[in-house]
Design goal:
With 234 residues, this protein is of the alpha/beta class. The chain has two domains: 159 residues, Rossmann fold (3-Layer(aba) Sandwich); 66 residues, no CATH class. The chain contains ten helices and ten strands. The strands form two sheets. It has a six-stranded mixed β-sheet, with helices on both faces. A four-stranded antiparallel β-sheet has the order 2-1-4-5, covered by helices on one side. Strand 9 and strand 10 form a beta hairpin. The longest helix is centred in the last third of the chain and has 18 residues. The protein binds adenosine-5'-triphosphate. The site of adenosine-5'-triphosphate (ATP) has 14 residues, from strand 2 and helix 1. The site of adenosine-5'-triphosphate has 14 residues, from strand 2 and helix 1.
Length: 234
């Protein structure tokens, strides 16, 4: 069975259509990437899955139709979301920002905090630092950590490398790989940085103007010259 199965998803902002008949599937423990340029609809797609944007079409989670459910219901069903540009509370500490993520947590909050600290030792060292004074990479770690505070089974990550140095991107890629390999998490990551996406996703979907225009493994997509040129620097 698929963990996530999306059929014919459409989304509108007023009269402007942001997503047109998007369909995709994600298997348990798989990491998939949604690759696309600015405005392609990547954030909208994750917002739709999370119940933040209204849609037509169907979203299934472990076989159950969850279309139209509210974000809090999606969190209860095991979805974690690390949005683009973090949305942290800048004048709160790292610890308090992580605790915000645990607001609806059912299990032991300190245990989850310890698990986040194991993944990101730097957040343990900087527990009492205000996030406004952190580097971009550290803030991305807080954002991912906050999403993990409810111990989700599916993690949605929106453009985790935006504005980050290559070395920090590599660190983030390592953490996302560990989440899948060690904790069995299913991950959907959106990216403009196709090489980052290739480094961790088993399959990729290319989103252009709200349409899925290609999908497949990295090897399959690399066969398409035009695509390889546009997205993978070939
Ligand atoms: P980026 O990489 O720049 O974040 P994206 O691929 O995530 O882009 P979206 O943010 O999903 O793309 O935007 C898709 C389209 O929907 C764009 O044309 C955008 O202007 C529009 N859009 C997004 N959010 C809203 C909103 N709240 N109101 C109106 N239009 C919106």
């Amino acid at each position: 069975m698929h963990v996530i199965e999306i059929d014919n998803l459409c989304a509108f902002y007023g009269k402007a259509q942001a997503l047109s008949n998007v369909s995709l599937t994600v298997k348990p423990g798989e990491t998939i990437a949604i690759v696309g340029a600015n405005g392609a609809g990547k954030s909208t797609l994750l917002d739709c899955i999370m119940g933040l944007v209204k849609t037509t079409g169907t979203i299934r989670l472990n076989g159950e139709d969850v279309t139209g459910l509210k974000p809090a219901d999606m969190v209860k069903r095991g979805i974690g979301y690390a949005p683009e540009r973090f949305n942290l509370f800048p004048h709160m500490t790292v610890r308090d920002n992580l605790l915000v993520g645990a607001y609806t947590a059912r299990d032991d909050i300190e245990e989850n905090m310890a698990a986040v600290h194991r993944l990101f030792p730097r957040l343990a060292e900087r527990e009492w630092q205000e996030t406004s004074t952190q580097s971009g990479g550290e803030r991305q770690m807080v954002s991912l950590g906050r999403a993990l505070m409810t111990s989700p089974s599916v993690l949605l990550v929106d453009e985790p490398t935006i504005g980050l140095a290559p070395k920090v991107c590599a660190e983030i890629a390592e953490v996302l790989k560990r989440l899948s390999a060690e904790l069995g998490l299913t991950v959907i990551v959106t990216e403009q940085n196709a090489n980052f996406a290739l480094s961790l996703a088993s399959r990729l979907y290319v989103l252009e103007g709200g349409h899925v225009t290609a999908e497949g493994t990295a090897e399959e997509l690399a066969q398409d010259d035009q695509l390889a040129k546009s997205y993978f620097g070939a």
